Every structure is written in C-alpha cells, then in structure tokens.
Amino acid sequence: MYLKSLEIQGFKSFPDKTLLQFGSDCTAIVGPNGSGKSNISDAISWVLGEQSTRALRGAKMEDVIFGGTAKRPAVGYAEATLVLDNSDGTLPVDFDEVAITRRMYRNGESEYLINGTVARRMDVLDILHDSGLGTGTHSIISQGSLDSILQSKPEDRRALIEEAAGVLKHKQRKAKSERKLANMDQHLLRARDVVGEVARQLGPLERKAKKARTYQELAVQQAELALSLAVDDLRGLQKEWDAAKEREAALSAELEERRGAIEAAEKAVEELQERIRQETLDAGDLSRRHRAAAAAVERFDSAAMMLRERRRAALGRAGELELSLEAAAVRVVEATGELERARAQAAEAAGERTAVDAKVSDLDAVYRDLGVRRGALEREVSALGKDAERLSSQIEAARRKHAENQEALTHGLAHVQVIESHGAELALELARLQGEAEAAGAAAEEAAGALASLSTDESAARAAVGAAVQSRDAARAALDEARDTHRALTVEIATLEEVERASASDAGEARAWLAEHERELSGVLSPLSHVICAGEGYEALVETLLGTDVATLLVENAGVVREVAALLEGAEVEGEVAFLLRDDADERAGARARRWPGTEAGTGVALIDELAYPSDAAAAVEALLGDVVVCATLDMALAAHGADGLGLRFVTADGSVVWPSGKVSVGGAVIDEGAGALARHRRLESLRAQLAAAVAAVDTAEEAHRMAEEALRHAQAASLELSQSLAACKGRSEAARTAADAAGEKLASCRRELEGVERQRAEAEAVISKARPNVESFEAEIAEATEKLEEAKRRQVELSEELAPLRREAHRVSDSLAEAKLAAATLAERTTYAERVLEARARDLEALDAQTAEHRAQLQVKKVSAARIEPLLALFDDLIAQAQRWTRSLEDQASAAESASSGLHTAATEARAKAHEAHALFDGTTERLSEARVQKGRLELQVEAAVNHITVDCKTPLETALALPPLEDRAPLEDELFKINRRIANLGTINPDAAEEYDELKVRYDYLAAQLEDLDSARRALAKINRVIDARMKEDFVRTYEQVDANFQEIFATLFPGGRANLSLVDPDDMENTGVEVNAQPKGKRIAKMMLLSGGEKSLTALALLFAVYKIRSTPFYILDEVEAALDDSNLRRLAAYIDTLRDETQLIMITHQRRTMEMADVLFGVSMQGDGVTKVISQKLDQALKHAE
Fold it and tell me: How confident is the model at residue 587 (pLDDT cuts 50, 70, 90)?
C-alpha cells in the first residue's frame, strides 16, 4: 500500500484545487521558506484524523480554512482527500483504492468520507488502525517531533515502543473495558441497592403471602367441608321429603279406598231398599204408603246424606285449612324463632362489632398516640443527631480554625524572627549591591567603547569578505565556463571519433578490424583523409576526386602491406583494404599540374598547391592529385584540355572532370562542404587543439579559483576572528551591561525586598495580634460545642432508651389493631349475613301471614257453610225421624204382610251402619293426609333453604354439589370444620392481595437477581479480558522493546560510526508503566545527558530511534519534514545513505532544502508562493528531465 495522490482545496494556503500525484518511490518537496511546503504534510495529518490544533500549527481548528489575503477572498470550507493504493489488501476494505476525505466548514461542522460515503472519524481510525497510519503514529516526522522525542518524559517515550508493538489498540480496548467496568460498577451498585430494597420488602410480604395462602387453603377446605355437610343435609332432607311424599301418596290411595267403600256401602243400602220396595209392591195401599213413606225417608235420607257430604267436605276442607293454619303457625313460630335468632345474632354481632369497633378505635387512637409520641421522639432523636453532626462539624471546623490560628500564630512569631534576621541581612546586602552596581556600570561603559572600535574593524572585514566572495564567485563562474567548454569539446570529439569508427566499420570487416587493432601493427596506417588538408572550398572537390581512395591507408613500404595481409588472413577477416606505399614516390610522375602554363595566365589553379600534407607523404599525394588543374567553368576546362600537352585532368568546382583521354564527366555528385571525411578530420584536429587550450584554461581557472578561495578563506578567517572578537566584546559588553542592569535590578530588588520585609513584619505582627484572641475564642468555642455535643449525645441515648419501649408497644398495639380489624371485618361479615337472614325470614313471615290470612278466610267460609248445614241436617233428621216413625208404624201395621221382607230391612240397616262406618274411616284418613301434607310442606321449605345455601353461600351449582360422593361419617367432618374455623380466626388480619403482590415482587426480585448475576458475570468476563490484555501488552512490549533496542544500536552505529547507543527501562520491575530512557554516546564523547548533544546529534539520535521502530512496524509511507535541517554535510551523507536503503521498503516523501536530499528523489514538487499569498505546485520527474537535458 502507498499514497497515490493528495488533493487539497481551501486548506491553509491552498485556496484552489491542487492535486499532487505520488509514485511508490521517493518524492521530494522543495521550495523557499514560507511557501507552504509543510502545509502539505499538515493536510495529510489532518485527513488521517489529527485533532490537535497545535500539531496543525494553529490556534483553533477553523484556522485550517484559507482565511483570505489582500488579493484573494476567504473560502467557506477546507477539504483534503488522500487516495491510498490498497491493491495488496492492507486496509480491511474491498477496494483496490481507498479515498479518505475530510471536510470542514467555517461554522465548525466537519465530516469524513470513505470512497465518497459519509463516515465517522472512528471509522477512518478503525480502517487505518493496523496499517501504521492514523493518530498516535509517527509516519509524519518533523523537526519539532524529533526534539520532542528526546525531550519528552521516559513514560511518554514508552508510547513509541507501544505503537511499534501494536499495544495502542490493546490499550484502547482496555480503556474501553475499564469504562465499561466503571459503568457496570455503577449499574451493579444501583442494582444491589434495588435488589436489597426489594429483598427487604420481600420478607414481610412473604409472611403476609404465606398467611394469605394459608387462609386461602383453609378457606378452600372450609368451603369444601361446608359444601359436603350442606349436601349431606340436603340429602337427608331429600330423604325425609321423599318419605313424606310416599306417605302422602299412601294416604291419598287409602282415602280413595275409603271413598270407594262409602260408595259401595251406600250402593248396597240403595240396592236393599230397592229390593224391599219391590217385595212390598203387592202389599196394597199400606204398602204404597209404606213405600211413599220409605221413599220420603229415602229422599230425606238422601238429602241428609248430601248435606252431610257437603258438611263433611266443608269440615274436611276446614280441617285441611286448620291443618294448613297449624302448619303455617308452626312455620311462623319457626320463622319467628329463626327471625329472633337472626335478630339476636345480628344484635350480638352488632354489639360485638360495636365493641370491636370501639376496640379498633381505641387501639387506633392508642397507636396514633404512640405514633405521635414515637414520631416526636424520633424527630427529637433525629434533630439531636443532626445537632450532634452539626456540633461535630462545628467542633471540627473550630479545631481546624484553632489549629490554623495556632499555626498562624506560631508561624507568625517565627516569621517575625525570620523577617527581622532577613531584614538585617538585606541591609548588609543592600550596601554590598550598591558597590557592585557602581563597579558594573563603569565596566559597562568601558566595554561599550571597545565594542564600538571592534564594530568598525568588523565592518571593514565583512566588506573584504564580500569582495573576496565576489572574486571567488567570478573565479567559480570562469571555472564553470572553462569546465563547460572542456566538457562540450570532449563530447564533440568523442562524437566525431565515433563517426570515424563508424566509417571504418562501413568500409568493411577488414577495415574495421584494422581500426580496432591499429596499435598492434608495427607500421603506421594513416588514411589519406588524415594526411591531406584542403583549403577552404576544396575539401569536397578533393574528396570527390579521390573517391574511395580517401580511405586508402598510407603505409611505409610493402613489408607493412605483407604484414597486414598476414594478420588479416590469420584473423580470418574478410573485406578489401587499399594501401598506398610511401617508398614508390620516385617512380611516379610527381606534380605535373604545376608545370601547366595556364596557372600563370589565371585560367586554372594546380590543385596540389591548394593542399597541405606532410613532406614524407608528398610523393604519394602528388601521385594521386598532382595532375589536377581546377578551372572556374567547364568551358575553361575544355579549352585548357585542348591546349594541354602534359596529360592533366581539368576539373571544376561543381565536380565536372575532363580526363586526358578526352573523357568528360559532368553532373557528378559533390560531397557537401563540411560533411566529408577531410572536413571531419579537419574539425577533429581543430577540436583537439581547442581541447588542449581548454584544458589549459581549466587549469588556469582552477588555480584562479583556488587563489580566490584561499583569499576568501583568509578574509573569512580574519572576519571570523574579528566577528568572534566582536561577539566576545559584545558579549562582554552585554554581560557588563547585563551585570550592571542585574546589579541595578538586584539593588532595586533588594530595596523592594527590604520594603517587603518591613511590610511582611507589619503583616505578621497584625496576624499575631489577630491570631492570639482567635485562638482563645476558638478554644472556648470548642469547649462549649464539646459540652453541647456530650449533652446532645446523652439526651439522644435517653430518648433512644425511651423510644425503645414505645416502639415495642407500637408493634404490640399494631398487631392488636390488626387482629381487631380482622375481628371487625369478620363481625361485619357476620352482621351482613345476619341481616340477610333477617330479611329472608321477614320475607318468609310476610308470606306465611298472607297465606294464613287467606286460609283463615277460607276456613271461615267453610265453617259458615257447615254451620248453615247443621239446621238443615237437624230438620232433615226430624223429617227422617218422623218419616221413619211413620214408616215403622206402617211397618208395624203391615208387619204380617211384610214379614217376608224383614230380613231385607235388617240387611239395609246393617248396610247403613257400614256406610256410616265408612264415612268415619274416610274422615280419619282425610285428617292424617292433611298432617302428611303439612309435614311435606315443611320439608319443602327446608330443602329450598338447603339448596339456597349450596348455590348461594357455597357458590356451587346444584348438579355439581349432588355429584359429590355421600358421607360415610359426618362427625369427623364437623370436627375438622370446627378446627378450620378456629385456625382461620387465629390467623388475624388477612391481606387477600398479599400473595399476588408477593408473586409479582418475587418475579421482579428473581429478574433483578438474575440481572445482577449477569452483571457480575459480565464484570468478571471484562476483568478477565483486562488481565489477558495486560498480559498480552506486557509480552508484546517486552518483545518489541528488545527488538527496537537491537535495531537502535545497529542504526545508531551506522549513523554514528564508532558510536554506541541503547535503550534502558526506568523501572524494569514495572513493565506495565515503566518509562524508556535513551542512552547515546557518539564516538569520542562522554555524554551524561541527552540534552548535552548538539542539535544535529539530537536529530540523528531521534531519527535512529524512529527508524528502529519502523523496522518493527513499518508504515505505507513516511513524510520527513526538514528533518535534516540541522545536519552538516557528513551527517547528511550518512543519513541519506540510510534513507536510500528504505526506499525499496516503503514510500518516502521528503520536505527539504538540502541538495543532496533532492538528488535522491525520483520526483520533485516545487512549491512557491506569489504575492497573492496562494501556494502553487509544479512537479518534475528527474529521469525525464535528464533525458530532455541530453
């Protein structure tokens, strides 16, 4: 991963959008001071999450926004974007490029963006955490940060090792865990308070709930037993009612039998009378009269029987009504008894309730009275406690003030003694300082005079140095010019020589081989182009005439040719090589063109006269070019040929040639002037001559530069000596003036101090005079408050002793009151029940009264009916008696006649007797049936009451109740019910909602207890995490510390050859908090303290420590902001060499003024600031710049 680009807009001195494209190599940012170079590193730091305005060189964060200049208005926001190459996946995001943007507005709002998506600062820090970037790292190094590393405390320096070990994230996690633990402790404290309060409420409520549940269980058992007994009562009543019903049915059947018997008896009587009448029909008139009398008797008897039946029915109904009235009377008596009992019970319950209410009222009054008394006592005890606390605080304050005043008094007395002795010393010191001030003033005046003289000399020396510098600069310029000339000539000569070698290569493989092995040959092999030197305008013509012979090698003799041929053959080199022998000159024709007469007439020029060549090569050159005459035009050449008798060649400047044989060549190509081999050799020789002159000029310029440097050094030495003398004199003068000022200040200070001492003595005496009475008053106040405190405590003890029985009595009365309230509630229920029973019995009595009145009215009617029938019966009885007497007389008269029917009359009489007996039995059965019906009605009422008790009081459907199994033994259930009723009465006051309240509170308690247990478990887990983090941090710190120490020793030895350095722990026993000391000793020095190192040594030592850390935990890029500013050339060279070893491992961005640092860079960013206060940036890749320069 590396930094690809940085885009800035509105940040500090970059109001316009500025884009800096970085490579993965080394980048240098250069520019004058104040141009905005460091603003680039500030922008990178700002984007990476820096929050410290001091680190960003500002007073507040809004200072990073461009504030405007005289020519440019301010902008509204600052924005910077870093683009990081993440192709290696260093950052934990799925992007090959990660763009991190930070934007800030003037209203203080700011935002972060990751790849254009709004994010938090924490998100940015999380992404950068394990990459070595972000806050707390040292990927951006400035001169100030180097100083702070060595000047910081050992504990602060420990952060370097922790950052390298990756401990910072563990520390953050630990801090987060500790914050969570603190919050959890608060939650635990609150939870324990709540759980404790709930537990305190749970105990009493649990007892109440148990009592309520016991009551509920007993009430259920009571209801079950009461229901069982009620059902058993109902079943018993039902059996009795069934028996009464069966008896009623039996009596009704018997009554029907009796009625049937009456009907049968009466029918028998009628049949007998009918037989008697039939038997006596023939008895004559007597018989007719007898029959008439008998008929009358029968009619009378029938009417009497009808009346008797009506009377019987009336009397029967009257009997039934009387029975009903009797039953109603019984029921009235029972209802009245029940009513009276209900009234008695209600009165009893009301009386008991009145008594209980009175008891409750009395107990409540007693309880309130006890509460009032107890509250008064408790308030008094509380007030006494507060008074005791107040008196204790007052005593403590008084004691503290007493101690302060006592100390002030003691201190004042001692201070007065010290002040008096100090005043005496100051008086002596004042006299001494007066003399020193006068002496220092005289020395300052003398030093000022010497300083003025030296200042004049030093100014002259500076002027001489300036002149020497100008001379040196002029000599350096001349030297640079001479070196540039020498360099240019050398390059051009090398170029031409390369062209010569290329020409030789073009001539063939053999020619190229000879050119390479020329020094191995015994003879001199020189091409004609090196031998012939043509004048101006003739080089191209000569080269055209020579053609390929221009490359012909001039050799001494044929032996050289044979030797070269053998060498070529031995080297197995192919190709043609032409040679020209020097020793064949005598056999050649020589320079015939000189003998041509036209040369004197001006019609032509002998070419050989326009050439220059060595004398030993004259024969060879003249043999080749001695027959050539140069004419101005072709016509002149043709004319000259016509007059020639020497066999010459006539040529023109444009290359036309007239041969001796008459051959004329025109239109031939002429080599361009200056481009041929002759011109090239001439230029080469000229350049070699110029090079020799340039070498001489460089030597002369170097000597002049050396002399100027020597003169400058002498001038600088003289100026330095004068400057040092001036500085020393200035120092002495300033020291003298400072001493004089100091002496004057000391004198004034001594006078002020003496005045202050006098003032302090007066103040101390005032404090003493004030403190003495205060001490006495505070002692009295302490004694009085102590006495009051003892009295308050004694009274508090008395009240506590008095309050204890009141509290016990209050508890007893509270229990009694609760029991009384329970009894009152029970009696209220009983009263309510008695009132309901009373109302029911009253309603029953009203119904019975209405029924009795109705029955009495009916009875009266029946009795009146029976009474009215009695006279009629008596009348009919008289009539029947008369008719019977008449009938008996008739019978007596007709006895003889009717003797045969006497048995029938007897039978009729017996039948009538039986009919009367049947009527008597019927009346008895009717009476018993009435009694049975009355008993049945009574049982029906009891059954109805039992059913109402089951359905209403027991709240159980009748079907469900009747489904219960029958009781085998009733007595144990009645005993158990009695015991349950007694237990319920003994329970006292019952809160029916206590069980539900207890369950709800218990659920809450269990939930809170579980939460408390979870919090305890979480706290233990967090504590364990902290212990693991501590152990991990300790291990990582120790391991990293050892590695950093070894790296630091190695790098320090590299940067300080022969020097030694190491790290040490302030407290090795406390590895979690120990600081880290830096020990450094350059070669040949004994440094006890790091502050004694020079500025450059401090910088290199700090860099060595940082580089040691970087070797453990490298970062994607390093920004070095003028870290080498304090280094000299040798230290800079060593630092540059070491930094150069880092460029393959990480990206380097260096802000620098040093030329050596710039030479290391692959890319240069030039930063400048114009008059408008806006920073401009230009970039240049050095490799491309070098290509353009070549």
Answer: very low
| Residue length of the chain | 1190
Identify the pLDDT of residue 406. Answer: 63
Torsion of CA 754, 757, 762, 763, to 10 degrees: 140
Query: 340-355 burial by CB neighbour count: b if 16+ within 10 A, else e?
Result: eebbebbeebbebbee
Using alpha carbons, list the distances in angstroms from residue 627 to 202, 228, 541, 671. 145, 171, 14, 21
Q: CB-side exposure of 354: number of CA atoms within 13 Å? A: 5
Q: Which of 27, 298, 252 is nearest to 1150 (CA)?
A: 27
The pLDDT of 359-365, averaged and rounded, is: 76
Amino acid sitting at position 1033: M
Angle at CA 335, nearest 5°, toward 333 and 336? Answer: 60
End-to-end CA distance of the chain: 34
d(CA 401, CA 410): 14
Does residue 101 surpass a pLDDT of 90?
yes
User: What's 11's DSSP letter?
Assistant: B
d(C-alpha 936, C-alpha 324), whole Å? 11
Highest mean pLDDT among 248-257, 327-336, 834-843: 248-257
Mean pLDDT lowest among 670-679, 728-737, 965-974: 670-679
Per-residue three-class SS string for 926-981: HHHHHHHHHHHHHHHHHHHHHHHHHHHHCCCCHHHHHCCCCCCCCHHHHHHHHHHH
Dihedral sign computed on CA atoms, order 237, 242, 247, 251 = positive
At 184 the three-state DSSP class reads helix
Give the relative orientation of helices 994-1055 and 1095-1112 as an angle to the nearest 10 degrees: 120
Is residue 792 predicted with pLDDT exceeding 50? yes
DSSP letter at 593? G
Closest CA to 547 of 671, 693, 715, 408: 671
Q: What is the structure's pLDDT at 586?
A: 45
Question: Which are the contacts of 179, defined by CB distance < 8 A and separation ≥ 6?
Answer: none
DSSP-derived pairing of the beta strands 26-30 and 1147-1151:
parallel
DSSP state of 283: G
CA angle 537, 543, 549 (to 5 degrees): 160
- Region 782-801: mean pLDDT is 75
CB distance 371 to 810 below 8 Å: yes
Question: In b/e form, how buried is each residue of 1095-1131, taking b as 16+ CB within 10 angstroms?
Answer: ebbbbbbbbbbbbbbbbbbbbbbbbbbbbbbbbeeeb
Q: Are 1148 and 1117 in contact (CB under 8 A)?
A: yes
Using an 8 Å Cβ cutoff, are 1091 and 1112 in contact?
Answer: no
pLDDT at 414 over 60: no
- d(C-alpha 716, C-alpha 461), whole Å: 8
CB 649 within 8 A of CB 658: yes
Q: Which helix (H) or strand (E) holds 775?
A: helix 677-893
Q: How would you classify residue 284: left for phi > 0, otherwise alpha for psi between -120 and 50, otherwise beta?
A: left
* Cβ proximity of 1149 and 1120 under 8 Å: yes
Percent of the chain having pLDDT more than 70? Answer: 72
Contacts 24+ apart (CB under 8 A), 1038-1043: 1038/1071, 1039/165, 1040/161, 1040/164, 1040/165, 1040/167, 1040/1112, 1041/161, 1041/165, 1041/1065, 1041/1076, 1043/1111, 1043/1112
Residue 288: what pLDDT? 62
Calpha distance 764→409 (Å, rounded): 9
Compare 844 and 952 and report the one with higher pLDDT. Answer: 952
Reported as a single tens digit per residue, the pLDDT across 1004-1022 is 778 778 877 877 777 777 7
Give ∠ CA 141-1094-37 in degrees, rounded to 5.
30
DSSP state of 65: B
CB 918, CB 256: distance < 8 Å: no
Burial class of residue 101 in the structure, from the number of CB atoms within 10 Å of its CB (0-12 exposed, 13-18 middle, 19+ buried):
buried
Q: Is the pLDDT of residue 81 over 90?
A: yes
